[in-house]
Write a structure and sequence with these properties.
This protein is about 30% helix and about 25% strand. The chain is built from 20 helices and 32 strands. Bound molecules: adenosine-5'-triphosphate and magnesium ion.
Length: about 625
């Protein structure tokens, strides 16, 4: 990996010249005076003095060369709709939306909370905020009223944008009443609520004086041209709260110029997309992946982005691949969870469509176990690139960068440190560098590269105290994830630093045990948690979903599967890591972004309250867990 190693080295050793070159990928209204201001570590300001705008880079800049090219395709299997917007049409739609938002008194620096289903208006609203220099805070549509209210109180938006309802598997989710409740719970309610009426909910109510009907506002203000507001590079573009897997969500604040440069650069070096081609990211605009790679990244790069409203297996498990074929997708981005869902379906669906346009499939968000990585790779016959990042970073930390060098894929590894990131894998005991094969905490030496969070919204101190205090003497950003590097420099993620089970003084990552369980041929999915044990401190407990459930039909069959799984763990990690029990379930409790609710599982197993479960994908999963724990 000579070429990539050189590229990475340059990004760290000649930081300023490296990023000056990358910064040419975007339009600057005014050139920057200084590449990096790192005078107040760990705070980094990129491209100081430069003026730019995310919306201009995503849309206006392309109008000369590609005004008739499709910019956005909205595909909904919920409403059976497909709508295409050329760059010209997208420009008009975003301008109109910006005019409506502006008419509500929103301007530069004001916050706008967006609580929306996966409809084009969600993207219009984000881009319109960017156009005005307003700071959007997209809250995943599906969070309960209370979660929405805490985010309102933190961001204090002037305006909230929502729709009457979302749809999931054919069922309506009524957003508007939920927003009404959130607003009434909040201490800093927004002055206005803009409602996009899709006509799904026939009888929601509008609050006079506060609520504004979008269609009506469009008729009134939509034709007013809205010029781009040029922002200084470090001015905030948006706030996005982390998933909250490990506690109170943090309001990640992102800048403008650094983010645009990081995305533009990643589109070329990592995702290998070409302007004019189509990118399909199966996430939601409510998550960071949706911000970076449904909305901003592909558009900044002049690609066609696909916004999909629907489930991955409805009408059948072939739907995503049908989209790849029909839209000639070259870059696809999904999650390990989705891959595991597909693994449980008939593999014929993956062979039914012509995937020849597709160059790579990228996956992120959760550990991708080796068997699933191998399976999806074989099933689609295309390179599947696992890459690792966080809401905080906004773009990948670990990945292969096929645009620089085609390194081989190693199953189970997200590859190498991405350029710009000075990664250190440190021993927890004394903060020295871990040797190859030795587990360490994955940290980043600041400055964090362009695109990463610049602070916690409204709380600089929390930014420093949360992320930079793991090793008191060193000011290093902690990812709070364990990693291990092999002799060739491939990094493997071993799970979160607080997901460690302490069995009689031996510290074992849950991910390590999960990998061992996954090696059993009949396992589709597994979650391992540590459960308090009076003798040993903690004991691992495994919850497993099998591929062939007929093997569990009899008590004897169940016992023999459990025994085989325990043997597999003994064999790979030693008896110390052997789960106390393996409990078989039909599905695991996950958030709608596909993150395993490991903390809730652990709480249930220890007889405690499972906590905030508002974004749970399938409440039945939890009920079954309660059942098997009793049984
Ligand atoms: P919170 O920080 O609020 O607890 P969260 O960490 O779940 O929430 P995200 O920022 O969405 O919120 O998730 C980032 C985390 O997801 C990473 O720190 C890592 O633990 C996990 N992750 C993401 N991608 C990968 C990957 N490719 N392999 C392994 N783990 C991954
Ligand atoms: Mg996190």
């Amino acid at each position: 990996m000579g070429a990539y190693a050189d590229f990475h080295r340059r990004s760290i050793e000649n930081r300023e010249s490296f990023w000056t070159e990358e910064a040419r990928r975007i339009h600057w209204h005014r050139p920057f005076d200084q590449v990096l201001d790192f005078s107040k570590p760990p705070f980094a300001k990129w491209f100081v003095g430069g003026q730019t705008n995310l919306c201009y880079n995503a849309i206006d800049r392309h109008l000369d060369a590609r005004s008739d090219q499709t910019a956005l395709v909205y595909i909904s299997t919920e409403t059976d709709t497909e709508r295409r917007y050329s760059y010209r049409e997208l420009h008009a739609a975003v301008n109109a939306c910006a005019a409506v938002i502006q008419a509500q008194g929103v301007g530069r620096g004001d916050r706008v909370l967006i609580y929306m289903p996966m409809i084009p208006e969600a993207a219009f609203a984000m881009l319109a905020c960017a156009r005005l220099g307003a700071v959007h805070s997209v809250v995943f549509g599906g969070f309960a009223a209370a979660s929405c209210a805490t985010r309102i109180d933190d961001a204090k938006p002037k305006l909230l944008i929502t729709a009457d309802a979302g749809l999931r598997g054919g069922k309506a989710i009524h957003y508007k009443p939920l927003v009404d409740e959130a607003v009434s719970l909040s201490k800093h309610p927004p002055e206005k609520v803009l409602v996009i009426n899709r006509g799904i909910d026939k009888d929601f109510s509008m609050v006079p004086g506060r609520d504004v009907d979008y269609a009506e506002a469009l008729r009134q203000h939509g034709s007013t041209p809205v010029p781009v507001t040029w922002l200084e590079s470090s001015e905030p573009s948006y706030i996005l709260y982390t998933s909250g897997t490990t506690g109170k969500p943090k309001g990640v604040q992102r800048d403008t110029g650094g983010y645009a440069v990081a995305l533009a650069s990643s589109m070329e070096h990592i995702y290998c997309g070409k302007p004019g081609e189509a990118m399909f990211t199966t996430s939601d605009v409510g998550w960071v992946v949706g911000h970076s790679y449904i909305v901003y990244g592909p558009l900044i790069h002049g690609m066609t982005t696909i916004l999909y409203e629907g489930l991955p297996i409805r009408p059948d498990a072939g739907i995503w691949w049908k989209i790849v074929q029909e839209q000639k997708v070259t870059v696809m981005f999904s999650s390990p969870t989705a891959a595991r869902v597909l693994k449980k379906q008939d593999p014929a669906y993956l062979k039914k469509y012509n995937l020849s346009s597709l160059r790579h499939l990228f996956l992120a968000g959760e550990p991708l176990d080796e068997p699933t990585h191998r399976w999806i790779h074989d099933a689609i016959g295309k390179p599947v690139i696992d890459h690792y990042w966080q809401t905080e970073t906004g773009w990948p930390i670990l990945s292969l960068a096929p645009g620089i060098e085609k390194a081989k894929v190693k199953y189970g590894s997200p590859g190498f440190p991405v350029y710009g990131y000075d990664l250190k894998l440190l021993r927890e005991s004394d903060a020295t560098e871990a040797a190859p094969g030795e587990k360490g905490v994955l940290t980043i030496a600041p400055p964090l590269p362009p695109g990463c969070m610049t602070t916690v919204w409204g709380d600089d101190e929390r930014f420093v105290n949360t992320y930079f205090r793991t090793f008191p003497k060193l000011m290093l950003y902690s990812t709070f994830d364990w990693g291990v590097r092999d002799a060739e420099g491939y990094t493997f993620i071993l799970g979160r630093t607080d997901d460690v089970i302490n069995v009689a003084g031996h510290r074992i990552g849950t991910r390590e045990i999960e990998e061992a369980v996954q090696s059993h041929a009949n396992i589709a999915e597994v979650a391992v948690v540590g459960v308090a044990d009076s003798l040993k401190g903690q004991m691992p407990l495994a919850f497993a979903v099998v591929k062939d459930a007929s093997k569990l039909d009899t008590e004897a069959g169940r016992k023999s599967q459990e025994k085989e799984i325990m043997d597999a763990v003994d064999h790979q990690l030693g008896a110390i890591a052997r789960p106390q029990r393996v409990l078989f379930v039909n599905s695991l409790p996950k958030t709608r972004s596909g993150k395993l609710l490991r903390r809730s599982l652990q709480a249930l197993a220890e007889g405690r309250d499972p906590g905030d479960l508002t974004t749970i994908e399938d409440p039945a999963a939890l009920e079954q867990i309660r059942g098997v724990l009793k049984g």
